[in-house]
Design a protein that fits this description.
Layout: H1 3-16, E1 25-26, H2 28-35, H3 39-52, E2 55-57, E3 63-65, H4 70-94, H5 97-113, H6 122-142, H7 145-164, H8 169-187, H9 191-213
Antiparallel strand pairs: 1-3, 2-3
């Protein structure tokens, strides 16, 4: 792996996992020393983070990790709804039914496994891996590379928002049921139902985020 690719992957993970929170200045000297690479590949990595929207230029001193606010999350969900509802509708028309029937069964089972403390519950990471598998299956079934590329960037930002949303057990179980409904609608081959189920899930997810940050 090239030094710039390695630096990009490490910085991106640190930002998504909030080890580098919003407002952190990613100075070239400091980060090149921390990551053990020269400044040329680091500049390339910082440029890619800026293109992703995870960082922004900062007073000629490298870049700064971009903020997350209720307004930016709202804008992100507007884009997410347009993309994910369309992807689900396309997937319903082009899917392998067996793939999505199996995913629905797994989401039904996941709801029962999620424990009382999401921060300590090992099922939580397995659940997020299951969500990623559903995303991958929808992308494959939709078979639209441009849509998949656009969704990839949206999901990158959503991973950061998820850490901020302070998931609770009740909400995790609700999302498992919502994902099961989406998978079932796609399996049945109903584009309108798949898009509607996705829209309901996104509405409830944004409502949860808003409740957490504006009680």
């Amino acid at each position: 792996m090239r030094a710039s690719d390695r630096a990009y992957a490490m910085l991106r993970e640190d930002i998504v996992e909030w080890r580098l929170p919003p407002g952190t200045v990613l100075g070239e000297v400091e980060q090149s020393q921390r990551l053990g690479i020269s400044r040329t590949p680091l500049r390339e990595a910082l440029g890619r983070l800026t293109a992703d929207g995870l960082a922004a230029p900062h007073n000629g001193r490298g870049v700064v990790v971009t903020p997350i606010s209720p307004e930016t999350v709202g804008a992100l969900f507007e884009l997410r709804q347009a993309l994910e509802c369309q992807a689900a509708a396309l997937a319903a028309g082009r899917r392998d039914p067996a793939v999505f029937r199996e995913l629905r069964s797994e989401f039904d089972a996941a709801a029962a496994r999620l424990g009382a403390d999401p921060e300590e519950d090992p099922a939580r990471q397995g659940y997020y891996a299951l969500v990623a598998r559903l995303d991958t299956a929808i992308d494959a079934a939709a078979a639209n590379p441009y849509l998949t590329q656009a969704l990839g960037n949206v999901r990158l930002h959503l991973a950061r928002v998820r850490r901020l949303a302070k998931d609770n057990p009740a909400r995790l179980r609700e999302t498992a049921s919502e994902h099961a409904t989406i998978a079932g609608a796609i399996a049945s081959g109903d584009p309108a139902m798949a898009a509607a189920a996705t829209a309901v899930h996104l509405h409830k997810s944004l409502e949860h985020f808003s409740t957490v940050h504006h009680p």
